[in-house]
Amino acid sequence: MTRPKAKSKKPGGVDFKKIRRKIGKKLPPPKNATNTEIKSKAIVLPEQSVAADKAGLAVNKKGLTLKELLQQTSHHNAKVRRDALVGIKDLFNKFPTEMKLHKYAAIEKLRERIGDDDKVVRRTLYDLFKSVILPGCKEDNQELIISLLMSYIFNAMTHLAFDIRIMAFDFLDLVLKFYPPSFSSYAEKIFQNYEDILRKNQYFSQDRGKLKDVLAGLIHCLSLLPWNKGETNLVDKDDNGRILLHAFDEDMPLSSNGFSHIIKRLRDLAPVLINRFLEFTPSITAMASLEGKSFGCMLSILHGIDLIIRPFVHGADKESESPSLEGEPNGAMLDVTLSSMLLKKVFPLFPLSPAHHLSEKVCNVAQSDNAVSEKSLIQLLPFIPKFVSRGASYWTTRLLQAFTYLFRESKPGSLLKLACLSAIEDMLTPIQAMLSLEKSNPENLELQEYLMAWIAELPLLLIQLGDKHPACSEVALRLQLHIGQRALSNSSLACMYDDVQDKLQNFYCTCQGGGKKCSGPFVRLPRESQELSLCCLYYFSHLDFPILKSIACCCLSPELDPSVLFRIIEILHSAYREGHIKIADHLSIFITFVLRFKVSPEGSSGLKSVKLSQTFKSMTTLLCSYMAQIGGNYLVLNIIEKVIIDHILLKPPLDNSCSLLRMIVAVDSKPTRLSEQSIIILGNYLSEYLIDAAQSLPEHYDEQCKRSTQLTSVHYYLLPCFFLFDRCHKLLNLVLKTMRSAIAESSLWPISDDYTQHPSNWLVRVNAVASVLLLIDKDPKMRQILSSFKEGVDSIIQNVSSLQSSEKISMTIEEKHKIKCTYDRLKMLLR
Hints:
- It is found in: Nucleus, Nucleolus; Nucleus, Nucleoplasm.
- Pfam families: Ipi1_N, TPR_TEX10.
- Keywords: Nucleus.
- The protein is an all-alpha fold.
- Helix content is 64%, strand content 1%.
- The chain is built from 36 helices and two strands.
- The chain has a two-stranded antiparallel ribbon.
- Strand 1 and strand 2 form a beta hairpin.
- The chain starts with 49 loop residues before the first helix and ends with a helix.
């Protein structure tokens, strides 16, 4: 079959022509489209900018005025409100006059943010008031400022949000710190709000820090009451108060001064605080050690209770002229009610009660690094003496046991150690009174043991402190001095005080490795502390030789100031006159002073220090003066003669030898009381001593000024010898014989095997002999004595003459000339 042919289309008209469009190609605009394009040019109008409109106005960093910033504090966005407050602070700091002009308007607007829902906004507002607004408004109308703020603060205290309520108390505390007189106008309402917030136990159970802040504010308010004006330390959030048990203060200004209307409010507040204290007891007793925040809250509660019951205990409310409310208990009934609550609820749970074993926990707090706990203990310690003053008992013993442990374990130099020292000083009077009245009481014997432990701890503490904590060392030394002063009238206390001598040795002088002695902490302490320490020595009933040796070692330290050295000698001599030092020990220490004192500092190659030399001479003069004051010079000479002669044989340095000789002269008499053996030893020694002294003179000294320094120094060395020669002519004769023999043998000192003789050595010594004889001859009295031994002097001159022609020693022409000059000088003797 064939397919049928399609019908052919007839040509005709087309209504719409279909146009094929490519995908993605933009359609052309319709033919009937309206052109909406607008062409314009910039028009510049001068003086029309927003910044120019604020020229001359006070603006912050963002260019906003105070009016704009205050408007933004009501913005719905918390960040905008916070930025506005920061901007106001910036503006007031840059333009203080702006705050003075608009302070009331600013406070009226800013007070709305006290109850803000955002915590950051509230804290920023608090900082703004604390650092800028309130300090800048101190001299303005305070009543108006307070009235603007207090209504909003009280409203925030009743807010449903607990954080806002807590923050409201912070604002209240801030206002009262800047304007304390405003408290009296709002006292009743303030205490009512504190009572309401403290009843909300469920809010504080998890956050003790908030409770502590609220209690700090309450104590601040209670301290503003007229009968609590003795408070000198207003409590802040980081301190629980320095004084906790004010009921022990008997002399307080007690006057209601129109505050009688709040007595009822205080009566309602006291049970709330007591119940708060009771709520801590189960958790505290279950803890191994006291937790800082809980312990701080307990202390703050006790502080608040004390401030509340003060008017009832002292009867301040009885001075009020306003009658009691009908049906309300009078002051006496109120006193009984509060006393009953305290006796039945608080006192049995007091932390020092043995039933709960909290005294050990107080000791454990001392070992922790919690600064809050240490502050709390410092606040408690001042009241321990008041407990002790009421008499010894079982709980007093437990209290002192904890205190003693705390005193031993606290860090040297800490505030806690200082508080312990202060408490011990306050306890001295009551303990001493109890020990003198009832010596047989077992509890008093325990008090004596604790006192003994404290006294024994003081020397160890002084050594531990060293020179790093001078303030604490001064307090410890002052306490030791007061104990020593009281020991004069108490035999048992005197025994305790004397027992610390051994422990004090290292305080004055320490012994290092190899037996080397070094000065102790005493040398480096301030002058006032050194004086306290020296005064303590006077009150020992007897000073043993070991402690005297330690003091002597300290005196020989080059670090010690000369004035302190002289003060030590004065104190020791005063103690001797009171019978506290044996005469043999006293004189032995004096000899030690002059024998071991070093005029030449270490590392100076034997060169003398002018300052040390002058100090040594002054010390020697003082010692000789005290030795002469002892009385019984013959007895003193018998004690020191052998000791000094034995030390002289060891040939100490020239200055020390001179001081030893001056000591003998101070107690000897004319004629001399020295033994024959001592005279012989001195005769052999003094020749060498005099030659050493003469060698310090320059050559041809007689041609120089007689008042020269060298000549004065030589006279100082020769003077004790002149006294000895005057009292014993035989001694001078022995000295002349020794010098004659020395020149005759061409040797003045034994010569070692490896020593090579040289003419210059003998020349120096021969010249020194001549100088000694000439110096003796210049003194009128000594010249008269020397004339009695003219034969001995002539022998010396003859020996010098023989030395000129000696063939054993080869001399140069210059050396022969010097010998001749020396011979010529000697020929002038006794002419």
